[in-house]
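Thread title: Can someone regenerate the structure for this chain?

I was given the following input by a collaborator and told the matching structure tokens would be attached. They weren't. Posting the sequence so someone can regenerate them.
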Amino acid sequence: MDSGFRYDISGSLSKNTLKLSMTDSLNASFGPQSQTSFEFGTLSQEELNLNLDLSYPIEAGLASPITLSAGAEYRKETYGATEGDLQSYAAGPFASQNLYNETSAGVYAFDSNVTFNPAASGYGGTSPASAGKFSQKNFAVYVGAETDLTDALTVGAAGRYENYNTFGGTFVGKFNMLYNFTDWFAIRGTFGTGFHAPSPGQSNVEILTTNFVAGNAVQTGTYQVDNPISQYYGAKALTPEKSTNFGVGFVIKPTSSLSLTMDAYSIRVKNRIGITQTFDVTAADILALPALAAVGVGGDVNYFTNGFDTNTSGVDVIATYRTDVGTGKLNTTLAYNYNQSEVTSFDPQVISAAQRSDIANFAPRHRVILSAGFELGDFAINARQNYYSKWSVQADYPGQTFGEKFTSDLDVSYTFMDHYTLTVGANNVFNTKPDRIAPTTANPIYAITNSTADGQIYPRSGGPFGVNGGFWYARLRVKY
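Best answer:
Regenerated them for you:
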């Protein structure tokens, strides 16, 4: 508006669904009456967001007006799971059978008990007890102010209050500053706190699936924190994560075409949410809690938990250069990131040594991106070279470190009739893949098949850029 008052009102509604099914399987507990095809139900995530943002400049005799800001947000998040086929989750008449020996004519003595796991082999459908919709609502308000106290010093502060219907309220804040020593050199810093509430999906997920551990099929159940199964292994209600972050850096801009920034940061997270280690199910466990029969002897159980605190620190260095090449424009960027995480506190009953190693080593410590974009009239071309240093995932592949890799991205765009842009491109254009899984004594079949017993060639986690190789695409953008 003419007074300088600005407002922005926005809203979005989005939904993702995942329908799960399987063929060529069976539910052994139903014996000859078993289906061979199963519908497991549909999982969904729905999000509603409404936002209001306001700002207004006030003259206060400083080097620049004080920009006051305020706003509000309403958010509703819903996780849904629909019921699957009866046989996809249920226990049939052959789930438990007593066997007898004939000791004499017409006389039988108990010999043993034979069990078959309930649910479809390979994946368990959603049971009526686990089906439903689980929602979480939160409302937030914030205020902030930023100004140039002098021609050299800029400061800003903001505070936000968040209230969840499931976890109550909290207050978070941020302070930032920028000081220009010269026209081409400045330092900057930030301090802030953060808050992350568990999602309805983390609190209410229930998945029963077959995993392969050292080539052996293992039933693995992930259960809600209020399920008797997860509580049997020590589950507690999830609580929000809270964080504190610090950042300091400098900006160098010797010319209008060249700039260099370097920032160091530290992020501390308390009560971080993650999946527990797996708990092995024994016959004694099933006797104590019959519901564990769905997982079976030798199966695994895990659940989401506030199991550990972490500290992540790192450095970002970014150099950009812009210049004209003939009648075209060339923009180049070289970015480097060093990032390291460590577990500073944990519950040894639920977080394993392998999981702690993965938090520290799953993400590559070093990451480099060199990109260049050239524009000439209606044509544009962008090229990017990515570097990832070594990484490991000890929970899946103990003792193995996956090596450093380079990947390349390329896209070409053409804008026509002012409003339409057609882009053709590829991510990982040279089809780079991570190292193969190394043979181990736990995978004796590797020497014969060149893969693990369940057919894995590359790490299932995918590492920093996945196992699918190149991805080619075409995109049409319409702008009015």
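Residues 353-361 form the longest helix (9 residues).
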